[in-house]
Design a protein that fits this description.
5-stranded mixed β-barrel, 1 helix, 11% helix
Length: 117
């Protein structure tokens, strides 16, 4: 079951931009920049998409309502957007949590030069 959930999560974030049902587009990834009413999202493949936030954009965090001010660089997002005048306009932004930083553990090297644990 854990492998199935990991595969689904990988597909969601690896896709970057996916055509959604209807006329909306899904943009998935990590917020790399917030500038005025525009956020830039970087997908796991390194591609980026800029999305405009409108006054009508809905924000959701942990299954509840959120605000535009809740967005921060590093947050994972899934955005439902419409393409209007050659620009993506967000209708809904689902905010996830930024990945937790992991401390790098120094490698232990044995007297023979091999890396231990």
């Amino acid at each position: 079951m854990k492998q199935f959930l990991m595969a689904v999560a990988l597909l969601l974030f690896a896709a970057g931009t996916v055509r959604a049902h209807g006329d909306e587009i899904h943009v998935m990834g990590t917020i790399s920049k917030i500038e005025g009413a525009t956020i830039t999202v970087t997908a796991s493949d390194g591609s980026t998409k800029s999305v405009l936030l409108d006054p009508e954009t809905k924000f959701i965090k942990k299954s509840g309502p959120a605000k535009r001010e809740d967005l921060k660089v590093g947050d994972r997002v899934v955005i439902h957007a419409k393409e209007l005048s050659h620009a993506l306009h967000a209708t809904e932004v689902k905010i996830g949590e930024a990945p937790k930083a992991t401390a790098l553990r120094p490698a232990l090297i044995s007297a023979s030069g091999s890396i231990l644990g």
